[in-house]
Design a protein that fits this description.
With 499 residues, this protein is mostly helical. It has one domain. The chain contains 21 helices and two strands. Strand 1 and strand 2 form a beta hairpin. Helix 1 packs across helix 15 and helix 3 packs parallel to helix 17. The longest helix has 34 residues. The chain is globular. It starts with a helix and ends with a helix. It comes from Bosea vaviloviae.
Length: 499
């Protein structure tokens, strides 16, 4: 009953006119940027972080969550119409959705994506509402050694999840952790890695790193790709709505996609890519019309899109209850919380229940808004695809520079923005994931603080990390997660040499 009461209180916050406006703006922006290839919700939230610096924290977080949900849905439009997913989580959708569009069934493909996103998002948000308090009850019993073990596990899983190479992910993470050491040591008061630059005494701003890596880096990367195949937009033919047969073939994939997306999204090594492809392969095996797969099976759109949006709600479980981001967008949202002096975790539920439960309630509202505004506005989203990329990315660069200067008007800060942007470009060019670097900058100082606290309690004995069952299990899982990819890679090479 406490959860119901808290959720009702959350709805009283989320239904305030100002909060509804924030949710509407978030959903609209999220869908718009999700439609544009290469521009995802992480980039959009990163760009808006400096702009929302002095706005209401609850309203800003509601808007960011709306962007997240909208971006996850918007990526399906380009995946279906031009076979160019706006988000990596829409890759599975593109496999069948683009074939449906070419066969003149783009309307039903977009409809099943929208309705599946609504169904999955609603069920997954209910899961978030009931699972989060239970996790909070466990988290309040954590000691500093447990939190340190949890953060090491997050470091390993995030590094292994993003990108194709665990070593590259760990390299990106190491750079982020090193950047987290810049500034004044809170324990000793000594300056670290500041190189005599006074502006660095406060440390590296998360917003500067995030905007540089995601916005400036992406703009430079797109500009570097001079020769691109023209993207042909498939016109929507026939009815936009689904037939009775389409409904019959979609409802079970929606539910199965939700069952894949929410729990995997809630894991420390979660994300949306894994559940979407699991859903796609499952629907391919269960489909009563196997000959249609590869030629435009509606199940191949319904299942992955449901998994996609369910994972977005699942990602918020570890973010809100433990302060652990499991996706690039969640990492930027964590930076948003810290921008307002808030630390997601069990204490946030006690200190700011209005913000937490208002955010959870707003997800139900954002889901409804997605369906209401997206189906009638599909024509607008298609026209957005005609924006010339030079205009689009030039605008992003100007917006990124202005937003950074608005937060901290400093030549050093602006220089750091473009240094991080060039670094982001190089990482994309050589296939290094950028999200672990942001996670390292945010969680690195927190892991250091928890380790120091644990060592102070144990009078400097590091064995406390292994003597405590909780931290020992978490560190063991982290060790297994660290070596497993290398062991599997070695086995694969060994088998290949034998063949």
């Amino acid at each position: 009953m406490d959860t119901f009461a808290s959720l009702m209180h959350g709805f009283s916050v989320a239904l305030e006119p100002s909060k509804l406006l924030f949710a509407l703006v978030g959903v609209f922006l999220g869908t718009a940027v999700g439609v544009l290839p290469g521009i995802g919700p992480a980039l959009t939230v990163a760009l808006l972080l400096p702009v929302t610096f002095k706005l209401d924290p609850a309203g800003s977080m509601i808007m960011f969550a709306g962007i997240y949900y909208g971006g996850m849905y918007g990526g399906s439009t380009t995946a279906i119409l031009i076979n160019a997913p706006g988000e990596s989580a829409s890759l599975a959708t593109a496999l069948e959705g683009s074939k449906m569009a070419k066969a003149g069934r783009g309307g039903p493909a977009l409809a099943t994506a929208a309705i599946g996103s609504f169904v999955a998002g609603t069920i997954a948000t209910l899961g978030l509402a009931f699972l989060a308090p239970w996790l909070v009850d466990i988290a309040v019993k954590f000691g500093p050694w447990d939190y340190f073990g949890l953060m090491i596990l997050a470091f390993v899983t995030v590094s292994a999840t993003f990108g194709d190479s665990p070593l590259r992910g760990l390299t990106s993470l190491a750079i982020g952790v090193t950047l987290g050491l810049v500034g004044i040591d809170k324990l000793t008061g000594q300056a670290r890695l500041t190189f005599g630059v006074p502006e660095l005494l406060d440390g590296v701003e998360v917003t500067t790193l995030a905007v540089g890596l995601f916005a400036v880096g992406e703009a430079l990367y797109v500009a570097s790709k001079r020769f691109r195949d023209p993207e042909e937009i498939v016109p929507i033919k026939g009815s936009l709505w689904m037939t009775k047969e389409d409904w019959k073939r979609s409802w079970a994939p929606w539910l199965r996609g939700t069952a894949f997306g929410f729990p995997i999204g809630a894991l420390p090594a979660g994300g949306a890519e894994v559940p979407t492809f699991l859903s796609y392969s499952t629907e391919r095996k269960l489909c009563k019309y196997p000959g249609e797969f590869g030629n435009g099976a509606i199940e191949g759109v319904a299942g992955p899109e449901a998994a996609n949006n369910a994972s977005a709600a699942g990602t918020l479980v570890p973010l809100l209850t433990l302060g652990l981001p499991t996706s690039a967008t969640a990492a930027i949202m964590l930076a948003g919380f810290q921008q307002y002096g808030l630390n997601p975790g069990p204490l946030l539920f006690a200190e700011r229940p209005d913000l937490v439960w208002g955010l959870i309630a707003s997800l139900f509202i954002a889901n409804a808004m997605l369906v209401i505004i997206n189906l009638p506005l599909i024509g607008l989203w298609v026209r957005l695809l005609a924006i010339p990329q030079p205009w689009l990315y030039a605008g992003i660069l100007v917006f990124a520079a202005m937003g950074t200067l608005a937060v901290k008007a400093s030549v050093v800060e602006l220089s750091m923005l473009f240094v991080f942007g060039f670094l982001g470009f190089l990482m994309r060019r050589y296939d290094y994931p950028v999200a672990p670097m942001v996670v390292g900058l945010i969680l690195g100082p927190m892991a250091e603080a928890q380790l120091r606290r644990a060592l102070q309690i144990s009078l400097g004995d590091p064995m406390i990390l292994l003597e405590n069952p909780g931290s020992a299990i978490l560190l063991s899982l982290a060790f297994i997660g660290l070596i497993a990819p290398f062991v599997m890679s070695g086995l694969n090479r060994f088998k290949a040499s034998e063949d």
